[in-house]
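Q: Could you fold this chain for me?
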Amino acid sequence: MTKKTASVPALMDVARRAGVGAATVSRVINGGQNVSTKTLAKVQAAIQELGYHPSQAARSLKGAKTKTIGLIIPSVADPFFSAAAAAIQEVALEHETLVLLAASDNQPAREREQITALIQRRIDGLILAPTYAAEPTMLQHAKFPVICFDRPFPDKAVPTVLADNYGGAKAATEHLIRNGYERILCIGGDAPLFTSQKRVKGHRDVIRAAGLPYLAELNVQDYLSTRAALDRHLAGRQKIDAIFCIKNELTVHAYRVLRERRIAIPRSVALLGFDDFELADALEPPISVIRQPVVEIARKAAEMLFKTMEHESVGKGMITMRVELVTRGSCGEQ
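A: Sure. Below is the predicted structure, expressed as structure tokens.
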């Protein structure tokens, strides 16, 4: 004979235990208005004894909030987005709200599927770092507010919080030039992304204004392609004397290649990357970076979402947050 599994307590179980009607239990759950102190105590005791939790799915069918928000990021492995997810969850916890996390891997088709799934789960709001090919039609059936971060939505109608990608790349390139570097290679990947385009443009504008040769490898994705790109510029009479990487993963790959090739940093080649990363200050030499205020960006996006969910206006433009040039030994600083 199999043992019967205990069922999850329902609202009617609480009503029977407390000796009241279902409507009274519902009023207690939703704030206790028009319920006497004695009845309130009985219902709360029954809820405690039974371990009852209201069904958010059932409440959502009645138009009530589900106390859940969605978060779609490109990758949970990327340090920037994992830190952002942690900061967003902190804000959600302050609002007693659960975060449903999904990773798009920068694939538009996957992003569309995830948005559809979150719409079906009747979330209260969505925070999104959109792919390069996100389509406005993906949100046409969303009955909840949406806030973007790190990248804007293509139609620019969605409020967005991001870093000063263009200004950060300019500051990085100007710093290298001030330190005497003249043949600076820009290494990038994910060319269609908004962030990549802004960083490359910031670098290129400074290089051209200074009358220096524009050197770029913009289809670099991993260690092998980084090594191949650098090998094309590390030999011959016109070899590079500095590298600017537009994302932290490529900075790590470039550092590894230079060490393996026994190329002295910064004496032979300087290195500066966009976005800080763990152990950047502990390497030998420590790596100079443009640091994004990732936690502030993520918290701002989350706070804007909750304000919008409470019908407060946050505008539809882009909020651009300042970045910081952190100088370390890889560019000659001590």
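A (continued): The CA atoms of residues 119 and 141 lie 8 Å apart.
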